[in-house]
Amino acid sequence: MSKETEGQSDVTCESLDQSELVAMIELQLSEMDMLQSMFPDPRELEVDDPSVLCDLRDFAEGRTLLLPPRLDLVINLDGRLSMSVNLPHHYPAVQPSVFVRSQTLNRDAQHRLNQELLGYLKTLQQGDLCVGPAVTWLQEKGETFFDDCPEEVSKSDDNLVEIKDTKFARLWIYSHHIYSKVKRKDILDLSKEFDLTGFCLPGKPGIICVEGLSRNTEDWWHKVRSWNWQKILCKKHEDMEITAEQDLSKLRRFSTFEELGSENNIRVKSSGFHVDMGDVFRYLENHESGYVFKEYFGINGRPT
């Protein structure tokens, strides 16, 4: 995990009573013990950074006053449903960030599943642990979303684009930092789910570009910005009208969505999270987007 907390919420930890914060983290740890007994296979319960659990125990037991990073985890159920969870420090006083995805559900069914799960979580008593109940709900209700689930429109039909959405959009996102492996995986998975192309550059700062149908970019952005971030904003929003005869792929500057690194000829320093900005500028230039470098960093770019 990062050296600093992956995000800040609207309720700051500094505003919380120390004993209350310790009590909340103790509850988180008790729930994690329960989840680990339910899912002993590490492929079923994936903790983004297992050392965070040790840090949380040290904080709860008074061995350190340094507040650890937040806990990110993924719970994989029956090979078909995967639930990503981010626990704020003040959980369970507030709800965690929870999102379920599936490789076999179409987008409408997946959206409906997440909305119904969110509705269920809102029925729970405020202050109660809810990750365990969310798992139980998914185990009981999840299978029903696969019943009579129509297949997605094939990719070959994508250029016929239900031209109900008549706009193509490109979003340029800036984040204070992107370190979390869970967030990075979720960004990649969501981009695939919404048929978006572009890139994610992890590190500090983190930058993301997504492009595709306007409604898809809006849905993607709505989900991503709801996660816990220290700072995240859309630096630039570009859109254009789609005519009935246009090939959607011709509007794209990126052929896929990818995480940038050495495989894209971007030199990464030893820390793994600091890159050569000249290489980033060159990558943008190669995708007709060099102008956005100044939007991100306030200076004109140049290759090194």
From TrEMBL:
<protein>
    <submittedName>
        <fullName>RWD domain-containing protein 2A-like</fullName>
    </submittedName>
</protein>
<dbReference type="Pfam" id="PF06544">
    <property type="entry name" value="Prp3_C"/>
</dbReference>
<dbReference type="InterPro" id="IPR017359">
    <property type="entry name" value="Phi-like"/>
</dbReference>
<dbReference type="InterPro" id="IPR006575">
    <property type="entry name" value="RWD_dom"/>
</dbReference>
<dbReference type="InterPro" id="IPR059181">
    <property type="entry name" value="RWDD2A-B_C"/>
</dbReference>
<dbReference type="InterPro" id="IPR016135">
    <property type="entry name" value="UBQ-conjugating_enzyme/RWD"/>
</dbReference>
<dbReference type="Pfam" id="PF05773">
    <property type="entry name" value="RWD"/>
</dbReference>
<dbReference type="InterPro" id="IPR010541">
    <property type="entry name" value="Prp3_C"/>
</dbReference>
<feature type="domain" description="RWD">
    <location>
        <begin position="30"/>
        <end position="145"/>
    </location>
</feature>
